[in-house]
């Protein structure tokens, strides 16, 4: 069974293994935990994820965001980041939802199903009428995932397409 679960201390071991196997920046999805030690993950990064969802201890200019892991039964297959609202920089850039699927799980429909779950969760957190997302032009698989979930291309620049999903 596929489900999203917010970052939590109980699943720290599996979350740590997934985060440290994910690149620091891949197709625009940033991972501040890449290459961290287990101690650093458990004592700093994971509590940061949990606090960010509550809007606690945010860096200047940052917004609350919920880090959710995509689980398939007992294995984490992806991670989805849902920003509760947008600054101008986020509205012009990354948008409300970012995601990454583990390399060994790609091409199996996890991104499409995970984004569907993330969009459902986002509507409970976000008051706007549209969700903002972005995708690198050299990542047609991710664009296809977004389009399958009701996105349309709003605009583009040299490197990215900016999509929207209506409520």
SS elements, strand count: 9
Roughly what is the average pLDDT, rounded to an integer?
A: 95
Give the distance, in angstroms, between the N- and C-terminal Cα atoms. Answer: 26 Å
* Helix content class: 25-40%
Question: Nearest-angstrom radius of gyration?
Answer: 15 Å
Could you say which overall geometry the principal axes of the C-alpha atoms support? globular
Offer a quick outline of the entry:
The chain has 167 residues and is an alpha+beta fold. 33% of the residues lie in helices and 31% in strands.
Q: What does this molecule look like?
A:
This protein is an alpha+beta fold. Helices cover 33% and strands 31% of the residues. The strands form three sheets. It has a four-stranded antiparallel sheet with strand order 1-4-5-6, with helices on both faces. It has a three-stranded antiparallel sheet with strand order 7-9-8, covered by helices on one side. A hairpin with a 2-residue loop joins strand 4 (65-72) and strand 5 (75-83). The longest helix is centred in the first third of the chain and has 17 residues, at 38-54. It is globular. It starts with a strand and ends with a strand.
């Amino acid at each position: 069974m596929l489900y999203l679960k917010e970052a939590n201390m109980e699943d720290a071991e599996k979350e740590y293994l997934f985060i440290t196997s994910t690149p620091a920046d891949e197709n625009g999805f940033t991972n501040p935990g890449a290459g961290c030690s287990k101690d650093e993950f458990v004592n700093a990064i994971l509590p940061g994820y949990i606090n960010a969802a509550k809007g606690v201890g945010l860096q200047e200019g940052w917004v609350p965001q919920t880090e959710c892991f995509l689980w398939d039964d007992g294995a984490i297959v992806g991670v989805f980041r849902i920003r509760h609202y947008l600054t101008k920089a986020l509205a012009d850039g990354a948008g409300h939802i970012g995601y990454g699927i583990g390399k060994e799980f790609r091409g199996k429909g996890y991104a499409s199903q995970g984004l569907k779950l993330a969009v459902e969760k986002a509507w409970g957190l976000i008051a706007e009428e549209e969700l903002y997302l972005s995708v690198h032009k050299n990542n047609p698989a991710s664009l296809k995932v977004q389009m399958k979930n009701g996105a349309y291309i709003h605009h583009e620049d040299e490197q990215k397409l900016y999509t929207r999903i209506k409520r």
